[in-house]
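Recap for those who missed Tuesday's class. We walked through two folding examples back to back. For each one, the amino acid string is listed first and its predicted structure tokens come directly after. Nothing is annotated here on purpose, so try labeling regions yourself before you check the end of the notes.
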Amino acid sequence: MTAVRTSSYAGASIDAIEHHYDVGNDFYRLWLDPTMTYSCALWEEGDTLELAQMRKLDHLIALAGATGAERVLDVGCGWGSLLRRLVERHGVGHATGLTLSRAQADELSGLGDPRIDVHVQNWADHRGPTPYDAVISIGAFEHFARFGLPRSERVAAYRRFFTHCRELLRPGGRLALQTNVKGANVRLDRRTAAELRFVAERIFPQSELPWPSEILEASAKLFEIVSFRNDAAHYARTCAAWRENLEARREEAARLVGAATAEDYRRYLDVTVGHFRDRHLGLLRIGFERV
């Protein structure tokens, strides 16, 4: 299926998404956990990275009320760990994934599970044959408003997403959202500002993190919030685990993507640990119910 960007879509372009997520599946496999889950884990003491990632998936599935559901949509499905968890562990009849990364879609094309289908498609263009019981989106919301837009346009872009999710859901259906946000600590020295600019320009071009208040404003009167938590410390720990994995396999990474790109990613993971620790960044997990 061809990826199409609608005229009303205000998020990062397909080229910008591919700049990050199409670096190479084998490269990401070096430093992510075995399930290729590329988003903040949910940690308890003694966890391995993989166990913490599965706990995160289970938490968001519970927030969405998706266990035992007939149809669930995953917006920004990555390499498919949530899709597999839904059908293999939570009894979901059919799970649909959306991605703008052709590399991710290629990886998922070999699943061979009739309960899962994946589309290279913008969420704004997606229409299901019947309403979904639940929608889950993990780590994609950060790309839904392009860098540099004024607040009013960002909120409008986010509201289009919430409106579309509401239209896709059955009455009483739930949306579980996990996203990075700007943190409460806005005191930035020159070094911190430069580090954040590096991540924005070299790793996630065109993408803009929302303020928590923008999410609340954009979803008002469309969804009721049933759960809200900020797990910034969990993302600091997740990025530290990824950084350690990448450092341990630095030579392999350089052979796969080149020394410069491998170093960019090591630096990105290293500085991101500090930004979540110091609350320049936050990590929200929010449960919404359609009203």
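Example two. Treat it independently of the first, because the proteins are unrelated.
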Amino acid sequence: MKEGPLQYGVPSDAQGQRPARVAIRCVAVDAVGTLIEADPPVADAYAEVGRRHGSGLDRDEVDRRLSAAFAACSERDREAGAGGLVTSEELEWSRWRWIVGEVFLELGADGAGGAVDRCFEELFEHFGRASAWRCYDDVGATVSRIEQLGLGMVIASNFDRRLHTVCAGWPVLKSARAVVVSSEVGWRKPGREFFEALVTACGCRAEEVLMVGDDRVNDIEGALSNGLQAVHVDRYRYGNAVPGAPERARVSPPSVIGSLIELEAWYR
């Protein structure tokens, strides 16, 4: 798809026509950046753990190196083509170990079992705990509304099995019908295989599933190309505030929202 704001939340047919929107039966929601965020932020946690193991990096430098490592991972995956979406618990473990090593390069001289390994082990355990995350302020009301309307909810994430523990630690997320995790599916979003597993977990047809997420490529384009409906959550639109859903009166639901509260327009 070309760059620019997404204009539609329903997939096109082979002729590029947008059919009438099908009634939603299940809402599939991305985890990190949509339902939950790291608390404290990822860079802060890395900097603190790094200091405990001998790093002298400040938070800003850690953040810069994290961004560079994530970008390098994404580029490597793109170069690998479809194979770059293959994953597993072991591959995710290796990916995060590599990222930690890139951030704390100066600690790597000790070799296996050294400071970098200790940093990685502590960070990997940290982000597997529910206490390392917080739900956004709009999540509770959104989940309650989904339940009130009798819709299903599935959590769909490019994560690993630690996400089950994270979600189980937040009562508001326990009502999810399933937690679909890429490392267990064997494929990451935006792969077709991931969305096939997601639709199966939702228990309805693909066009009856609304994918909600903050990543344009993984969540939105991936969902649309696999026949799901989709809406992009851009929380920076409101600086992470929870607006009073001023767009609810629209006849057509928005394809980009600033808060999960605005999903109300999609339920009509």
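Answers for example two:
Residues 1-8, 239-251 have pLDDT under 50 and may be disordered.
Residues 59-79 form the longest helix (21 residues).
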